[in-house]
Amino acid sequence: MKYCLLLLICICPAILLLPACKKALQENPRSSISPDTYFTNPESYESAVIGVYGGLPLNVVELNEMFSDIYGTPQPAEQVLPIYQNQPSANFYTSGTAWSVPYSIIKNANFILEKLPAAPLSDGKKTQLTAEARFLRGYAFFYLVQMFGDVPMPLKAATSYQDVQLPRAPQAGVYDQVISDLTFAETNLPDAAAQQGRVYKLVATAMLAKVYLTMAGNPLKKTENYAKARDKALAVITSNKFTLKDNYADVFHNVAYTTESIWEKQYIPGRQGNPMLGAVCPSPGYQPILLPAPWFINSYAPGDQRKVWGIKINYPSPGGGTLPAFFTKFVDLAVVDQNIGPSTAKVPYAFPILRLADMYLVAAEAENEVNGPALAYQYVNKIRWRARINKNSNTDVPDLKNLSKDQFRDAVILERKWELSNESSAWFDLKRTNTFQRIQTVRGNSLSVPIGAYNQTWLIPTQEITNNNIQQNPQYQ
Amino acid sequence: MEQHSIIKIPLSAKRRLRQIFLVMKLTASLLLLTLLQVSAKTFSQSVTLKGQQLPVEQIFDRIKDQTGYAFVYDAALVKKAHPVALDIKNMPLADALNLIVKGQPFTCEIRNKIIVVKEAITPKPAVVTTGGIIASSISGKVLDEKGNPVENATVTLLPGNKGTLSDARGAFTITGVTPGSYTLRVTFIGFTTYEQKIAVDKDLDNLQITLKPSSSSLNDIVIVGYGATKKSDLTGAVSSVTSDEITQVNAVSNVSQALQGHVAGVQVNQASGQPGEFMRIKIRGTTSIGASSNPLYVVDGLPLDNLTAQLNPDDIERLEVLKDASATAIYGSRGANGVILITTKRGKSGKARVAYSGYYGVQQLRKKIDLINAREFATLQNEVAKNDGTAIPWTDAQIDSLSTKGNDWQDLVYRKAPVQDHNISISGGSETTKYFTSFGYFNQDGIIENSSFRRFSFRTNLDQTISEHFNVTSSLSLQQSKYQQAQYQGAEGGGGVPWTTMVIPPTQPVYNPDGSYTRFTGVPWGESNPVGISRELYQPSNATRIIGNVALNYKIIPGLLLKLSAGIDKNDDKNDYYAPGSITIGRGTDKDGNPISGVASKSYSNSLTFINENTLSYNKTFGHHNIDAVGGITYQQSSTDGLESGTATGFITDLYKNNNIGAAVVPAQPGTGYSDYKLISYLGRINYNYKGKYYATVTGRYDGSSKFGNDNKFAFFPSAALSWNVSQEEFLKNSPDITNLKLRLSYGAAGNQAINPYQTLPTMSANTVVFNNAQYNGFTPSSLDNSGLKWETTRQFDAGFDLGLFKDRVLISADYYDKRTNDLLLSVSLPSSSGYSSVIQNVGKIQNKGFEFQVNTQNLQGALTWESTLTFTSNRTKVLDLGKDAQGNPITYKEIGAGGNWFPTIVGQSMMQLYGYTVTGVYQTDQEAIDNGEPSKHAGDYKFKNWDGKGTVNDQDDRTTISHLEPKFTFGFNNNFSYKNFDLSILLVGSYGNDIVNEFRKYNITMNGKWTPTQAAYDSRWKGAGSSNSIDKPSATSGNSIRDYANTLWVEDGSYLRLRDITLGYTFSAKQLSFAKLSAIRVYVSAQNWLTLTSYSGYDPEVSWAIPTVNGWDRGNYPSTKSITVGAKVNF
Prior knowledge:
The complex is a heterodimer. By secondary structure, chain A is mostly helical.
């Protein structure tokens, strides 16, 4: 009997535990939160919109910069040399990043866009947050459609891992979505952002200027958009919210916005550094990914501050001797002098995503396409004047004049290379103007694969092809 | 818990009876004993038996049933007994035994509630003197190898069979011996039979006989999950390792390291020479890609999530490796990677025994790599400049002025380093209380400055019998360890010490003119030179771990035992980091871009695991049927939380180190974390055997884990095994050659749940966004509901046999297995257009099949003994399935985690193999490159194979699998010799047929004048058409293509044969030590890793980078060492 009792004592807990088990095994994490419990107060909606900014900036220097005519041979680093030699792979992480980061912005934007209609917020706040999220989504699609052509276009947040496949949407449709998102944003964003780094009305206007200019060029060639591009750029210029800095050097090496800044990606001084430093800063024995090509160094007009200040030639190496010529737009020379490796130094210079000079160049290019150079000189010459070391010298970066429409077009494209080097404009300009052959001209037989039609798009990452039922872009061969 | 109250012990086989029927060292045996003691009073001590032809074994069974007394006997001896006719009723046990032994070849002796059945010693006529011949007497002492007296050893003189037993002091005397030549034979269970030829012509006094423990193990108790069993009753694939084997190799901090070469089916790699480093251990291959492949460690019954160097190997009594599903299924969801059961030492009754063991040794770089000297390096730089048309950096005069060697960075960085280990233990106890307590100190310095591992360990194991029903066992251990890791995982630079030491130019000085350390400038992220980094970087981590458990054993009725146990595993970790400004990684910039120095952080984490296990076990014999069952319910909860300071930069003084982080110029940003999980399990096992011939085992565990989705919390892991003890059959019973033959078969399932908690939940994650140059927190959805996630299941088939030949002088155990892991917990990539990149899903299948065997032989017996153990392991891992893609086609190629596109996983091959280009030589002309489809290459550049012969060489068509990282087989060969007081052991380990991906070669065969190449590469550099087809042309672009693309130049044969350890020892006998009142001293000298035969050009063929699924990837690991140690073991 005694034994039976003991047996019961032993077995009972087992029986009692059974129903309790499942409950006991429920997870109640304390360090993470579920979407269901996240939206507890009005601020949480704004935080979810702020979260969408997390993926910025979108530029991938190997793809957006290095693969263009203005850069010389990079230091061989994993996957860099094949891209330089026009033999990229769909397996390269560079393609993966260029593809996945914009889509994570789109996912985050879609998620909050679905939640906002029911949010306990004033209509004004709701509209503003919606405009902000739609701007970022449109911007991400703009990046993707330029890089990859036809792309999947999710406009709803995925609800299940089983439901994440989407076909490629024709690029014209993607551009329509971009225009739709950016136009909504332009209409509904506030005139001024609550903080530097967030978008406001004129950021949308400026972005629209770039989108229209792009749509007008290769491959869509919707030339009716040149006028729209010009008008949006002029809207920004004539808003009088921005002014060009007199000295080109003053545009950079700032942590906060200048009078020329439209939209920038900022870093926290002391804590973060702009990764561009590592892409452009040489150190003893090392060449970075983005070095100016010799022809490019020689292409500047005399007295161009963008060369004199912007490219250091024969700069003394802290290890003795000289460093290869390098761009200084994002380099703190003190870091070089003290031989603090780019991996150690944190240089928090802001990265310009949109700045006024770009708007002048957009206006110049678009106006030339619409009406010829006559009225376009004023815009490009503003930029050239600013580049002069001696503002009173007519020989320093002389004003453009007496050019044919074609000559003017070429001049503006070259002007963009001088003005916007390192700012993630180079590859997009080559594509828009369909001038990839420039790379063949400059790099010649150092290319493993010649420039061809396939250069219009980058390869879509393999895992997207495998896991989504879509076709790959043309192979480089 | 399993019990066997009838323990068959062949007296002829040499056993350590002490281990079995005196006080057991083993927990399980201890419980058994307790049970028996307890049973004594509840049973009658009288016997009722009736029958005409009662077999003796049956009589024993029935007496056991009636009295609870256990019999310990040699099956072979009892086989010789004749059946007995009995008709007795309530006869006192002793009287009954006297009846039974009458005329039998054995006697019975009641000791400690156990009846020991021993060979009868034929009485001889009394001593007489005849014909003037004086009879002599022989006396002496029987001792064990440690000099302790052996009681009840049988001492016999042959011929004539005159004999006696040794007494409690080990002493014996045989009188009345007729002069002549005899063989003196001493036998005792658990020991090798001792034989000595003696010539008797007068009295022989003070013979000293030292018995050596037998290596035969059929009757050893083997610990299995939730119980113990005799080796002969085992149905599963279990390997046992003794404490001697665990402590055989010195300068080892980690238990798993000690397993190398000792266990078939287990592959252990000492992946780096960093003291205290984790070990790479695989039991029967890699069963998982996404989840962990580490085995489960169970210490004294307590399952631990991981076990590092924090357990003192000297505290270990024995260790079992559970390999097949029959053995591991009882651990259910954690058993798939195999289970390592560790049993620590426990006290024995008797007076206190104090023991010391310790050693001291010196370690050094095992192998230095032959690199070019300063003059050659300068010459190379000139050649590079000449070939590239740039300015020649060195004049001839400058080169001549260089000291030939320049800085030999290997000599500057690697030093000789001491290692020492000291252990003191005190054990003893009474019949009711037994204790073992120990203190250990281990301190191993690394051959790189400021790398070390130091451990203090303390243990108390206590066994207390409370009453006849109750007994309590407890184990408590506390370890404090300090681990200083060298900066060695910085692959390809980043301050990694071994990597930089290899490639930094010999022409570079250690210091700048201003006294600061020079920086390695060969890569942009090159940091201060390795001398500076290793000297100045401060990054110790301290851990305090308390592992304790208490078990209450309650005997409900005979055969039925309840065990309630509770245990904790508490781990407190502290990690410090301080890099001073004297090295580059200690420098930074403030918010204005001004340089500041000193980078500091500090973090704490602690984890607590509570485990409650309740088991009920039952053991019963019905005639020839023996049932042994256990069932239980267990509960485990674990939580981990952590606090980290974040990194602060800029201090006015290095004095603070990381102790005043608040004073930093750029303050740190702290972080905290927390996670927990729970496991609830029901387990059961039934062992059945019939006549000790036919065995069956059925095991199951029903496991619930909080880590899985709501619909899949629970899973059931069953297994079954059959075995047939063929040698018990009539046709083999009397075979002179085959003393044991057992066939085993098992099939079953075990699981893997080694993923992080919370992975099935949808979550919002915080991210950091910068506005106004300040930090704002945003939130984004980071995962969706994944509640369909379930367990990874490994089903395993095992067929094996155990064979004992020639009186067990040869023991062979061999197994073939086939493991298939389904529902892999694999990170599955998603279309990233969804915004999600990957999710863990149950996708794919892996197969591991293999063959393993172990052969123990006693090659020589007599004055010179030689025993050897060979273990052989051959495993093939093959990925069978990786799921389907969106088009419904099987995925055949997949990049997984850190393996990336260099080490993709390909269906049909072993996982994560190097995938890349084949280098076939060096282009001799530019045209050759154009013709081969590499137009951007020139004469002197590496030639990649154009596999399809078409177009350009590109990654779509011209990459193939170019490595075979899995060895065809690995082996261990251990040899123990003894001669008189000397002993010698030699342990060889090796691996055959595996490649190593030597990523060093990206750099040290490159002739670009920035990195130091090896002498061999330098000597074969290309100097013009026809000059070389192996190494390319010196140029700034030399080696570019072999760095950017995975290729065959990185792949080397990793086969090796290594003399892991050689030890020569000398044991001073008790007699020699009588002056010092010591019972035994053994002193020894040993050498580790002193000889390695391999063609691998890197530091060590056991090398492996930190990614567990890529075994054999050398990116600049901490080089291995060789060492010489001297040590002593003393019993006071």
